[in-house]
Automatic annotation (TrEMBL):
Signal peptide, first to last residue: 1-28
Name of the featured protein: Bifunctional inhibitor/plant lipid transfer protein/seed storage helical domain-containing protein
Coiled coil start-end: none
PANTHER family noted in UniProt: BIFUNCTIONAL INHIBITOR_PLANT LIPID TRANSFER PROTEIN_SEED STORAGE HELICAL DOMAIN-CONTAINING PROTEIN, LIPID BINDING PROTEIN-RELATED
One GO MF term: fatty acid binding
Entry superkingdom: Eukaryota
Ranges where the Bifunctional inhibitor/plant lipid transfer protein/seed storage helical domain occurs: 14-98
Alphabetical keyword list: Signal
Gene Ontology BP terms: systemic acquired resistance
Length: 102
């Protein structure tokens, strides 16, 4: 492959990656005070058999979210309520949503 073809390939790859990032950002939907892409930051802390503690970024999202508003999503998600409770406790959230057994 010649130098020009390599430059074209790299430029095309950068454009595709940039477009993918823009599409990902564009598909974020605001819900209950936070964007859906931001909610993904908490996914590791509430999934799996032994989830890790929430990250500071997750806690920031959790504290900004209207948890009461998220109740219908919690109940439909199939997530273990105990894991959601642990996230709230680990993030220092004191106002508990009514839909979770606290």
């Amino acid at each position: 492959m010649g130098k020009n073809n390599t430059k074209i390939l790299i430029t095309a790859l950068v454009m595709v990656v940039t477009a993918a990032m823009m599409i990902e950002e564009a598909t974020s939907i605001p819900i209950c005070g936070v964007n859906t892409n931001d909610l993904k930051k908490c996914s590791p802390a509430v999934t799996g058999n032994n989830p890790p503690p929430p990250t500071p970024q997750c806690c920031k999202v959790a504290k900004a979210a209207n948890l009461e508003c998220l109740c219908p999503y919690f109940t439909r998600s199939g997530l273990d309520p105990a894991k959601i409770k642990a996230l709230g406790t680990n993030c220092g959230i004191t106002k508990n949503p009514s839909c979770l057994p606290w």
